[in-house]
Design brief:
single chain, 271 residues, Uracil-DNA Glycosylase, subunit E, 6-stranded mixed beta sheet, elongated
Length: 271
Amino acid sequence: MDATTYQGIELDAETALALLEWQMEMGADMPVMDAPVDRFDLPARPELPPLPAAPAAPVPPPADDDDSAARLAEAEALAASASTLEALASAQQGFDGIELKKGARNFCFADGNPKARVLILGEAPGDEEDRQGRPFVGRAGQLLDRMFAAIGMARDAVDAQAAIYIVNVLTWRPPGNRDPNPDEIAVSMPFLRRHVELADPDVIVLMGNIPCQAALERRGILRLRGQWTEAFGKPALPMTHPAYLLRNPQAKREAWADLLSLQARLESLSV
């Protein structure tokens, strides 16, 4: 067997390997040189020239308060003048005071039975909703349908007792499915409030953060979910958005508890 010499002592390969393993067990896991190195005496690293400053990001022009107030006043007047859901849809679709309209393909007003006891308030159209002109028809919408089917409710139910009516805070899709900004929510609120008044549901389900922000001026859906509150003068139940449940299947247990709470509240209101 080949041998090696370590500090004048001849070692065979097996002994040398055993010593190396022992050193590693004792915590010596980095090789060092034979002579110590005074790292405080090393020459200083040469100073590098400073990096050029990054160009400043363009600053958007300040919002025109007069323009925002005028658009909001127009939205309020149009919404107030609508005496039916059909008239409201026509007025909101024709309203040009929201920039999202220019980039969206279709107007997404509502879906389901407008006489339903339960109004589900979502956030904004996604790609598939924008394509079809109906809210909650993508993967999240398909999960929503299965969730409510589990408690005997559906958007296509003729009986108002078993029906759901689906509305979004925004009726036009934000580019890239980004969150709506405060101005977009504000100018949509007169139409949304009138929508709830005309539909007159018994209960509202706030699906996600944006509906809670719009209706309650609060965010933090994981803290809010399952706690009954009031929105637009109606009992309201915040729930996690089905898109969140698709990303976090373990949260479906809490969503099921919320659905059972909704079912119990509807039963109590029927007594």
